[in-house]
Specification:
The protein has 2 helices and 9 strands; from the N terminus they run βββαββββαββ. A 9-stranded mixed sheet has the order 2-6-3-5-4-7-1-8-9. The chain is 9% helix and 51% strand.
Length: 116
């Protein structure tokens, strides 16, 4: 049996931009992705802390530091300035799942890491 376990989380990411005319996804600065080990085009679950809305999309990296941009339909699920929790999961055998320790970072209002 495989269990779905949290492996990476970006806590308190602030939405910096929205683009309704894009196919979809979330654009996140590469430095933040590297810090938690989320890879380009990986599926992520997102919680909008302001509304409680949850949605799933995929990640597109950008070199522009501090960027957290919602695209396409996801752009309708948050406003610029909203706080998000961005989570990536992995599938593990139960023996592995027991010892998984997710990498978590907390961001400030400028999407800078304040707690690795």
């Amino acid at each position: 049996m495989l269990l779905k376990v949290l492996r990476a989380k970006i806590h308190w990411a602030r939405v910096t931009a929205k683009d309704l005319n894009y196919e979809g996804s979330i654009v996140i600065s590469k430095d933040l992705l590297d810090e938690v080990g989320i890879i380009p085009y990986e599926s992520v679950l997102i919680v909008n802390v302001e509304t409680g809305e949850r949605f799933e999309t995929y990640v597109i990296p950008t070199e522009e530091k501090g960027t957290v941009q919602l695209n396409g339909g996801t752009a309708r699920l948050a406003e610029v300035g909203d706080r998000l929790i961005i989570m990536a999961f992995g599938w593990y055998k139960i023996e592995e799942a027991i010892s998984v320790k997710p990498k978590v970072i907390t961001l400030n209002e400028r999407n800078e890491v304040v707690q690795p």
